[in-house]
Amino acid sequence: MECDIFYTHNPPFTGGPPSQRCQRHEIDAGTALQYSVLGMSTSLSGVINLFVCGYFIKLWGPRWSFVSQTSLLGLRVSTQIIGVAVGGRKGELIFQVCQAIGMVGGPRGYQYVFNLFLFVVWYLVSLLRFPARKYTLRRGKAWVPSWLIIAVL
Fold first, then answer.
1. What pLDDT digit, counting tens, does each position of 20-36 carry?
2. C-alpha to C-alpha distance for 6 and 99, rounded to whole angstroms
3. Which domain holds residue 122?
4. From CA 103, how far away is CA 49, in angstroms rounded?
5. pTM
6. Which of 5, 9, 47, 79 is the most exposed place for a label (fewest CB within 10 A)?
């Protein structure tokens, strides 16, 4: 995309084989800039996504939070495909703006919810296997913390 942008403002490529059309220092510098902006926005949106996902877990529970993280991740990737198809400066802007979807739903939140689910499963299995060893017994039955019941719902 950066190569197309370069040749919209400069004279067309006239020398050498067509495979060397995009091998210029200006194009490499523009590509490096866009790549670093993409990496920075991906990292920033991933960190924000962890906090948003934690809020969604408290608000809706892990099941619906998992659904929202997965569906919004698919939406982000779909819009980025559109950005690549558009190409040029508009395509780069679409690609970068769609990184904002990653703040609400993305792979970091997906992993967060999945790790929470695995922890809850581990906790329940260990509670069933060793009820008297680690956990308080009430009226002869294993006591389940209220936060675990809320997390499973």
1. 777 777 878 888 888 88
2. 24
3. 2-152
4. 4
5. 0.67
6. 9
